[in-house]
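Appendix C reproduces, verbatim, an entry submitted by the partner laboratory led by Prof. M.T., so that reviewers can inspect both the input and the predicted structure.
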Amino acid sequence: MERNLAWLQRQGPVDFTRLDIRDAGGVARWVERRRKGLGLLMHFAAQVAVTTSVDDPRTDFEINAWGALNVLEAVRRSGEKPLALYSSTNKVYGGMEHVRVVLGAGPFGGRYRYVGRPFGVSESEPLDFHSPYGCSKGATDQYFRDYHRIYGMKSVVFRQSCIYGQHQQGNEDQGWLAHFMKAAQAGKGITLYGDGRQIRDVLHIDDLLAVYEAAWARRSACAGRIYNIGGGPRNTLSLLELLDWIKRRQGRGARARRSSWRPGDQRVYVSDIRRAKRELGWEPEIGVREGLERLWTWLEGNA
């Protein structure tokens, strides 16, 4: 975080305040100082790991739910109506045990896929929070939506899938693509949870930035809406496929230990991104192979 902040400050004027969003008074004072002309709010502050939430659900709730409510209330009481973009998660859909998944053809013993869902999971999928992290992020997801309906806030929720790219300092609990690559470059081992064939749609950071810009450009039309944001069916990857890519890119494989499945870990998750394409005019432009190469190269130069 410190390195990324220093990089950001080199890009131009940045008014940075170190603040704990659990401090309602501090958040209110921060908003009040910036109230005049407040046009855009992007809420990213969070406890980001499912595993950490399982170990300490109270802190997870205080940061992700209570802290976000402090931000919403401070903005509401300011009288301003900024576009408020919330970075939510696909974890709000839970384990999706009711959806039929089969092991289809593919490398490394096959690829998991949905039955009867060629476009992936849409925004109409029932919410089913699984893990304290899913609960806290899901609660905030709904608060942002409801503040549009009740208070007229121009809020938008992005339920994001696996985001990766330059400036991501991944670890075992968050940012798995960067974590695998960093471990391989450093000659360290990784832990492979489950069978390694679980599928995710992955989205490069440049494409994520593009959808935030698209929401700003269409802020009047998208206020109050929820969008599933990910790589979609054309940009999917399994853990084993990533390890194989690393092996071919580096010339040697990363050492992998096996462990059991983690709570709420879906065998497959793919975002249906058609609503974002239809309403925001957005779809990913960076394919998996190009995106992996960009991240690998950046990590090599920023160890």
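The chain has a mean pLDDT of 93. Additional entries are available on request from the coordinating office.
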